[in-house]
Amino acid sequence: MSLLNLMSVSASGLAAQRARAEVIVENMANSETTRTPDGGPYRRKEVVFSSEAAPSPFAAVFQTEMGTGSAGVGVSEILVDQRDPDKRYLPGHPDADAQGYVAYPRINPAEEMVDLMSATRGYQANVAAMSAIKDMINKSVDLLR
Q1: What DSSP assignment string belongs to the chain?
Q2: Is the per-residue pLDDT at 54 higher than 70?
Q3: Which of 61, 76, 99, 137 is the right S-S partner for 50, CB 3.0 to 4.6 Å?
């Protein structure tokens, strides 16, 4: 596996963690949203990662044929929470039902913050890996001078 392939793998990890962070921030921003265009409260979303072939900048066809292609990570799907929403008794709320209950998203802000910290650390790990690869490439170029 070449150093450039390793850069592709880390880049795919960066993109996947960015997508995860975006979904987590969307969840947090909509934690009190009781009405959406689809009707009902906002539904929590969750990112699912899967292994996928990382694009190689050079000789992609050759590597694919030889079976030496590298695998990266990608977002395979975004799951929407289908559980029943939380009900809160707020009879004066505009979205209250006949019994005075309002449906709120089933989102735990503490859990979302832990997920966001995990996504941030995953992103930082990929940045560190790319930095190490860049240093290896620079050292290789220096040796060839």
Answers
A1: --HHHHHHHHHHHHHHHHHHHHHHHHHHHTTT----TTSSS---EEEEEEEEEPP-SS-HHHHHHHT---EEEEEEEEEE--SPPEEEE-TTSTT--TTSEEEE----HHHHHHHHHHHHHHHHHHHHHHHHHHHHHHHHHHHH-
A2: no
A3: 76
